[in-house]
Amino acid sequence: xxxxxxxxxxxxxxxxxxxxxxxxxxxxxxxxxxxxxxxxxxxxxxxxxxxxxxxxxxxxxxxxxxxxxxxxxxxxxxxxxxxxxxxxxxx
Length: 91
Prior knowledge:
The chain is α/β, with parallel strands linked by helices. It has one domain: Rossmann fold (3-Layer(aba) Sandwich). It contains three helices and four strands, in the order βαββαβα. Helix 1 packs parallel to helix 3. The longest helix has 12 residues, at 79-90. The radius of gyration is 12 Å and the shape is globular.
């Protein structure tokens, strides 16, 4: 399963990817607006950390998400919030 994480803290990128790999998911993390966000592809799960992301990034990510992509929004960008989302969507 592929996961795209939009937002969050730059210093937590490694933690996000490690947690996703524990759940046997391949993760791409976009903590800030880059040109790579436009080539995000169509992940199985799109996680939006709404507290640390701009509206422009949200619109860009939602525009690139496929029709089958599940979208999870969280105001908190903590590891516990990501773990809760992964448990909910991978169960």
